[in-house]
Amino acid sequence: MNFRPKNDNDDVDLNLTPLIDVVFLLLIFFMVSTTFIKESELKIDLPEASATATPEEKKAIKISIDAKGRYFVNEIPLVNTQIETLEKAIKKAAGDNPDPTIIINADAETTHQSVINVLDTARRLNYLRITFATERKKDDS
């Protein structure tokens, strides 16, 4: 028989130092690996597009470029391929319309420079509504 009084002073010691070290290392890891992005700095409203084509305006200027780089404004051929001639023809076709729609219809074999000349001329005339005419691909079936 054990007649000794029970001693309640036997407290269990829990060493918290390793636990604090682990928590501190986790805190440092998450601080270093987290990226802080402010998405509210730049607000962009993206335009919506539909599958249907918009109706052509009555005063649209159609500029066609053939494979050899010759220009046609509203199906009227220009006498040469100089930018000044193209600018005069676009001004004449626009008339009193301050911002006409320009439809560029370029052949697939035409040079990029011919298309860039049309875009540059439209920019110099402050015509900002420019679109490209394309054809749908034919299905193989």
SSE string, helices as H and strands as E: HEEEHEHE
The fraction of residues assigned to DSSP E strands is: 5-15%
> Poorly predicted ranges (pLDDT <50, ≥5 residues)?
40-47
From the N-terminal CA to the C-terminal CA, the straight-line distance is 100 Å
The oligomeric state is single chain
**Radius of gyration of CA atoms, rounded to a whole number:** 36 Å
The assigned structural class equals alpha/beta
**Helicity range:** 25-40%
Outline: rod-shaped
> Largest beta sheet: what is the strand line-up?
3-2-1-4-5
Largest sheet: 5 strands, mixed
Number of strands: 5
Number of H- or I-type helical stretches:
3
CATH class of the domain at 61-98 and 105-132: Alpha Beta
CATH topology of the domain at 61-98 and 105-132: Nucleotidyltransferase, domain 5
Mean pLDDT across residues? 78
What CATH architecture of the domain at 61-98 and 105-132 do you see? Answer: 2-Layer Sandwich
